[in-house]
Design goal:
By secondary structure, the protein is mostly beta strands. It has one helix and 22 strands. It starts with 6 loop residues before the first strand and ends with a strand.
Length: about 230
């Protein structure tokens, strides 16, 4: 296994020891780059000699990866389902339950999420991602009893829109860059007086200023937002 940089070999039963790598003590430390045999010649007090051999096995570690984790979460945001490669490992860290991350349970601040996997050789490998949970004050606009907010601002690969006091029915979200080009369009359906929607943005979206236009029946709300990579 690549993580096992060194191995300690010990021979017993004699007063003199000579290893195939040149070591002359009962115990030696080796660091082979591939599976290698090691021989030791043991000499007792009568001058009699015996030879023994052992193999130090080197196993390749699997390619580890954590997918689905955002770099920034809102403290009151949605649960996020993560996946690890190779499958069959386990997640650990603040806010983790199985493979689901709960930003509310994790609390604000930076947190390390660890995915560990043990292969058939008994070798355990790890991958770690660091996420940040923010209070996400966001931005908000109000009209009479209606309230529209978006957070976090700046956002990374998604943001949340919070709507209150709007009538049931379809609501459309359009995101424009400073050149007036539409870069994202989604439609949701309002069913309750208070709704929170999670909106993902294109993976290749450049950093900069964007304008979110929310259209609902005869109402139009405009929010200025900032995207960081």
């Amino acid at each position: 296994m690549q993580d096992r940089i060194t191995a300690t070999l010990t021979a017993t039963g004699g007063v003199g020891y000579q290893w195939s790598n040149g070591g002359g003590t009962a115990t030696i430390t080796v660091a082979p780059s591939s599976t290698s045999p090691y021989y030791v010649t043991v000499t007792d007090t009568n001058g009699c000699q015996a030879i023994d051999t052992t193999n130090v096995s080197i196993f390749n570690t699997p390619n580890m990866n954590i997918a689905g984790a955002d770099s920034v979460y809102c403290e009151n945001g949605d649960l996020d389902t993560l996946s690890g490669t190779p499958p069959g490992g386990s997640f650990s860290g603040p806010g983790m339950s199985g493979n689901v991350f709960d930003p509310t349970a994790a609390g604000t601040g930076q947190h390390d999420i660890v995915y560990s996997f043990t292969d058939g050789n008994g070798c355990t490998t790890y991958d770690t991602v660091t996420v940040e949970v923010d209070v996400c004050p966001g931005i908000e606009t109000q009209a009479s009893q209606q309230s529209v907010g978006a957070y976090p601002n700046p956002f990374v690969n998604k943001f949340y829109v919070e709507l209150s006091g709007l009538q049931s029915g379809p609501v459309k979200f359009h995101l424009y860059n400073v050149a007036g080009q539409q870069v994202m369009s989604q439609q949701k359906t309002i069913q309750h007086d208070h709704e929170i929607y999670r909106l993902a943005v294109p993976a290749d979206l450049s950093s900069g200023i964007y304008f979110l236009k929310i259209r609902h029946k005869t109402n139009t709300f405009n929010l200025k937002m900032s995207h960081v990579e």
